[in-house]
Amino acid sequence: MNTHTPIQILKEFWGFNSFKASQKGVIEDVLAGRDVLALLPTGGGKSLCYQVPSMCSKGICVVVSPLVALIEDQVNRLKKQGIKAVGLTAGIPNNRLIELLDNCQFGGVKFLYLSPERLQQSMVRERISQMNVNLIAIDEAHCISSWGHDFRPSYMACDLLRTLTNAPLIALTATATLAVQKDILKALKMQDPKIHKASFKRDNIVYHVKKVADKNYYLTQICKKANGSVIVYVNSRRRTHELAALLENSKISAAYFHGGCSKEYKKKTLALWLKDQVKVMVATNAFGMGIDKSTVAAVVHFQIPDSIENYYQESGRAGRDGNQAHSFLLLGPLDIEQAENQFIQNLPSLKEIQKTYTKLSSYLQIAYGEGTEKSHYFSFNHFVHRYELNSIKTFNALKTLDQYRLIQMQDHFEKSTEIRFICKKEVLYNYMETHEDLGLFIGVLLRTYGGLFEYQTKINPYLLAKKINCSYKKLESILQRLKRDNIIDLDTQSSDLSMVYLVPREDNRSLAPFAKMIEKNTQEKIHKMKAMIAFVQNNKDCRNQQLLHYFNEKSTSCGSCDVCKSSGDLSKEALEETETAILYLLESSAMDSRKIVAQLSYEKERVLNSIQKLLMSGKIIINDQNEYVKP
Question: Looking at the predicted structure, is the pLDDT value of residue 1 above 50?
Fold first, then answer.
């Protein structure tokens, strides 16, 4: 393995013939044994910057990653390429953990992915110190800084790796301001580091912030005109369903994606989108990790994101093939107020976070001092309803508990079915004789499960449906009929979240060490939201310049964003767009010029010129009230 060059490794395992310019320099410095901070935008190929150099040398690369989904995605990808990789996430039994660490030390594993919390385990630290580590990689390194948009206090423990091995270290992130960069270098004790910073400018992405009265109309127009796939980002699961249905009704193939969807649905839907059998994916920010599609023509933010970092990262999923792509942010009249309410007003206080933690423990029936190393499944809506909690604040509180590693929260969709026979056995046998169509099912049920007369028993409807050769839907109707006939007690529940308590339940004492950090982080979230709002309100400075300024980079005007276009000569496409918007407004009612200008986000002069052009072409006329109407 150590005789291979980086380009040979790249061709053999990844099938590429050359590196991107930003990757080449990073890999050279890593192979030279230097500490490296790599600031590469989304789509810049960050993972190859540590995977390739590690493959060039004997030994194992230890990778710290913040999310279970990221770890699982990377491990699965490497395994498919014939590269041995292991992921250590929460909830792994101790005997399995020892087996995986043995494989890393003696079994030729090339990549060990782990969450930062694993570094707090003495056994994990001891075993890493005994491994032949050739490289330490800290992925999503901005998590180490309280100024970062995904700050995780547990990342502060990453410097422990420096005491376990003499291997060089590479820290990688897609978005980091100057303050975050300084925090990363200091916290990781990086020695004479080489900083590689690719430009955050994306020349092929055209940014648009459109103030519109009817966002649904503009969304359908964008999706119809797009010459490739589209991603539409929204801030709620409910909205993904609504907009996907809207687009389907407009004859645009669309699907939805969010954390509450089942794994089977996610897999199927993603496959359809990747194969271009579905044009538009309407999603929450749960959609993005591991999604690498080069032909995304447009990314639409239907609502304001919570930070410029997330907006930039999500927009960057467009145009990865190098062709021109578009990023749209649709801004309705009430959107700023709604964003402030969702992301600022609904930030939970420390007291509210403590209350949520206590209620959660009660809901899951976790005793004081217990709860660790076991997954607990539950319905978020049911939890909120039972305790009459504010859903947005409560979810933000759960995310904070996850952020500070008191719990690990994951999306988990599961439907559980439990039954118990509530009639006497002789009544059941008579029922089977008089209902021959149900007798077969009841017989299979009795042979498959024991104790059905004594206690509630969890059954597998899919297994039973297969045994009696019927559909799942048909089996559900059979169960409902048995319930109506007072033969069984039926209890069906759905879960959309799972929780693992990473430390035993201690209520208020659990949060006490993090109180000041939580308050500081809350202020940072407010700061980032205000920066995002300032961006959408700034119609004077080039969008690209605003984004690059936020990331401490200077640039000239792009000449193509909505701000640049409004200040220069208008293209034929821009004029046609204005005319289309005016005609759409006049579909519903007559309007004077002042009302038309007020409804649209374009410059007043541009709207008035378009009105004159429409009048001259006869596409609109003036009525008796001096209003414009369609003839």
Answer: no
